[in-house]
Design goal:
Oligomer: single chain
Number of strands: 9
CATH topology: TIM Barrel
Structural class: alpha/beta
Number of domains: 1
């Protein structure tokens, strides 16, 4: 499916646009907590996780004390009130969701992947936490439902990756994207703008590198300093520049201009809980940020892919 911004109310390729055209329906992600941990927490590759990690990003997932089907049905029940004909994506987003024995992965994924009106499964993980055995299973599962793998990259700057304690190289991510491409699994890559000491050039270089990979989608976040994280301690001890809303909006628009037009924008800003957020406070107003991005793109009369080097 090709995308032209003239067919949409946005000047970039939104996930909502993709879902509506593929499934002819409103599609929601149902966030689930599969009870996983992370190799960057338990000591396999590192301890304590990335410096911004706040409780495994579980804020918007289900309650891990509940069975996965119960988690799913609780969310679906709320959504049905407004969207009675909606379809759903089962989303494993908390911690590293391929980091377990293969039989455990199969048991958890299969519980929810084929519930009524579920059209696919999204699995958030690390590029260094997918075994060959897991890849074989994902290839088979993808023949029965729509499988998407989300990989956390955050930045292509290797010095920054060490600072944030990512604990794997850029090469490892590139290799995993290639392996997932070979078995026809769609790949979403997460990036973070405003990481400590990064410049606009670094953030644009991340986009230019991703253009060279065959990724299906991207999630763009602003750095959130959350309570009880290593990042909070670091920021309080030695404050660094945090992007203003205006700076973030300007950088995102430039990133979109350089990004290939067929890459789906699955997220364009963060959505932290107010009570857990230290800085920046402008992130609370998610829709204001999104509207400002739209307004600047209209003002500049620009669109996703306008400056993509492959167009020249």
């Amino acid at each position: 499916m090709s995308f032209k911004y003239s067919d949409s109310n946005k000047r970039y390729y939104t996930l909502d646009y993709y879902y509506k055209h593929k499934y002819k329906s409103k599609v929601f992600k149902v966030s689930l907590d599969g009870g996983f941990t992370c190799p960057n927490i338990d000591g396999t590759v590192g301890y304590g996780g990335c410096i911004y990690c706040s409780n495994g990003n579980r804020d918007f997932a289900g309650n891990r004390a509940d069975d996965l089907v119960i988690q799913f049905e609780k969310v679906k029940k709320m959504l049905l009130k407004k969207w009675p004909k909606a379809k759903y994506i089962a989303y494993f987003g908390s911690y590293t969701n391929t980091y377990a024995p293969i039989e455990e992965l199969k048991e958890k994924y299969e519980q929810v992947a084929f519930l009524d009106d579920v059209v696919g499964i999204n699995i958030a993980t690390r590029a260094d936490a997918i075994t060959d055995e897991c890849l074989d299973y994902l290839e088979e599962l993808n023949k029965r439902t729509d499988v998407t793998i989300e990989l956390g990259l955050q930045t292509t700057n290797e010095e920054t990756s060490k600072l944030i304690n990512r604990c794997h190289s850029l090469e490892i991510l590139d290799e995993m994207v290639h392996k997932l491409n070979k078995i026809n699994i769609k790949v979403i890559v997460h990036i973070i703008n405003g990481l400590p000491y990064e410049k606009e050039e670094d953030m644009l270089n991340t986009i230019k590198h991703l253009n060279k990979l065959n990724i299906w989608g991207i999630k763009i976040h602003m750095l959130s300093i959350m309570k009880n994280t290593k990042l909070e301690k670091m920021y309080k001890e030695k404050p660094f520049h945090l992007l203003t809303k205006e700076e973030y909006v300007d950088i995102v628009v430039k990133q979109l201009e350089h990004l290939k037009e067929d890459i789906v924008i699955c997220r364009i800003t963060g959505d932290p809980k107010k009570e857990d957020l230290v800085e920046p406070d402008w992130l609370i107003k998610k829709f204001c940020v999104m509207n400002d991005i739209d307004k600047l793109m209209v003002k500049k009369d620009t669109y996703q892919g306008r400056l993509y080097e492959g167009n020249s």
